[in-house]
């Protein structure tokens, strides 16, 4: 089949997020100007550069108590920092619990029973038991087409790696099985990997 997105797909559910899959999940922690913490997952997330290391995530909806966006973007606008917590399979339920449209006064760490710790390079909380955390300073927020669509870019200023995930100097994802987002209500966990050598590499 073929369809023009502007005309609709004619299927029971939108296939777009199932086509662009799997997508890593950025479990974004932020702190507002008054010191209240927030934690929310975003599947429009990825790394975008090596030197300096940079990441991005996109927020695509809004909450009534935040105007044109959601808590994460509103907090980053106010403070200029955020942390990306990597989601392991063992924390999938906690991650999902933080995805609700909770009022801005709700601390999702407490709501989901997630232990928090302080970041080292930014004034922000992080998920204490996460396999990895990227501490980030926002570099720009880009307004995208459509209502409440924003892409947030940040430079990584600090990296936490859980010791049990390091094997012979390699960050081994099979030690924690990162969770990825598929389409609809579906997720996947990385349980096996394979390697290939690019042409021209030794």
N-to-C terminal Cα separation, in Å?
42 Å
For the largest beta-sheet, the strand count, sense and barrel status come to:
7 strands, antiparallel
Shape: globular
Q: Can you tell me the number of structural domains?
A: 1
> Which CATH class?
Mainly Beta
Per DSSP, the total helix count is: 4
Indicate the low-confidence ranges by residue numbers: none
Structural class: mainly beta
Q: Taking strands numbered 1, 2, ... along the chain, how are they ordered across the largest sheet?
A: 3-2-6-9-10-5-4
The residue-averaged pLDDT reads 96
Q: What is the CATH superfamily classification?
A: Electron Transport, Fmn-binding Protein, Chain A
Question: Could you spell the SSE succession in H and E letters?
Answer: HEEEEEHEHHEEEEEEEE
Helix content: 10-25%
Strand content: 35-45%
CATH 2nd-level architecture? Roll
Strand elements, count: 14
CA-based gyration radius: 18 Å
The CATH topology label is: Pnp Oxidase, Chain A
